[in-house]
Amino acid sequence: MGTIKGRGATDNSSSKRFSLPEREADGDWLDSLDTVDGAPPRPSTTVTVERPRTILARNSSPDIGFDQSLNAYRGCEHGCIYCYARPTHAWLDLSPGLDFETRLFAKPDAASLLRRELAKRSHVVTPIAMGSNTDPYQPIEREWGITRQCIEVLAECRHPLFITTKSDRIVQDIDLLAGLARDGLVAVSISITTLDARLARILEPRAAHPERRVSAIARLADAGIPVHASVSPIIPAITDHEIEAIVARVAAAGARGVFWIPVRLPHEVAPLFRAWLDAHYPDRAGKVMSIIRDIRGGRDNDPNFGSRMRGQGVWADLIRTRFDKARLRAGLQGERIALRTDLFRPPQGDQLTLF
After folding, report:
1. Helical residues (DSSP H) of the chain, grouped into ranges
2. CATH code for the domain in which residue 199 is found
3. Which residues contact 47 (CB under 8 A, 6 or more apart)?
4. What is the number of other CB atoms lying within 10 angstroms of the CB of residue 60?
5. Residue 172 in domain
6. Strands 257-262, 46-49: parallel, antiparallel or unpaired by DSSP?
7. What's the CA gap between 256 and 330, in Å, rounded?
């Protein structure tokens, strides 16, 4: 399958890891339409309501700076071809390719489930991460507003929060975030992979324009909200030449810190990414994968804690050196801000408190 305008993945192949049947493109009628019109129509976005029993996911990964996260949505319309979360759709018998970015799931009960979790005596107050798997401010947040509802609960309870996003839609919640920031309860990371609008359009087709993300950094910073920039992922021979320019731009916009992660290609992401390279950069596809394998110890992906976030070898060391020099030149921090955990107050139940 060739490129699809407005989408990241070039195909809709199913996962083979769970012995699931291979999926057809979209059914017999579209297969027939393909022979008549020359190409099937562009896949549209659908949203299905999901009713989970709990909303907080917990992890014990030593190289991740949080141990609990909240995802208001499953799947992500941004369509970033490199997204390490794509394989999660395989658990639903859906493709990590086009299905991941077109067949989305919303969790409208998320805020009430969060309130229930925070009311438990067993709840341990550590920062909750939003955006660890799929973007909390992807386009469907405009209609569903689930992310804002969850932030309202966290603001009421004075609970610490990390947010990572590629969308400038986050500025619509500055009224909530500024209040949390005054008490040291929130930090935001805006992901900027490239400043090249043409590249962004094919690399992360439905994410916000790079300039809008830079503007979001400025608006958050002006509101007193601590904001970092994530120059992630860095893709060798595709985006690495922009390291210095991106760091300088986010520093000028008001970012307090900056960090990076080399591109990760777990499970089904690797063949999707290779197909993307063949479609958009056939002249350098071999070179890009060769450098990635050098960074990943000879494989498409390194799943090991620690090294998966840093990479190894000559190319990783070169990128790290360049990034550190650019960061120091811009006067930026390299670590996330520590958030307060001592202000938490459990949500009120049906009965009002006396004081």
Report:
1. 28-37, 98-102, 110-119, 141-144, 146-157, 174-182, 197-203, 210-222, 243-253, 269-280, 285-295, 307-310, 313-330
2. 3.20.20.70
3. 104, 105, 106, 140, 144
4. 6
5. yes
6. unpaired
7. 10
Per the structure, how many domains does the chain have?
1
Residue 229 lies in domain: 28-330
Asked whether residue 12 is domain-assigned, the answer is: no
Is residue 113 included in any domain, yes or no?
A: yes
The residue type of 233 is: P
**Helix, strand, coil % in the chain, rounded to nearest 5:** 40, 15, 45
What is the reported pTM?
0.87
Of 31-35, 81-85, 196-200, 277-281, the poorest mean pLDDT is in: 31-35
The answer to whether position 352 is within a domain reads no
Euclidean distance between the first and final Cα of the chain, in Å? Answer: 64
Buried b or exposed e, range 155-167, using 16+ CB within 10 angstroms: bebbbbbbbbbbb
CA distance 200 to 80: 9
- pLDDT 10s digits, 298-350: 999 988 877 877 899 999 999 999 999 999 999 997 777 899 999 999 998 64
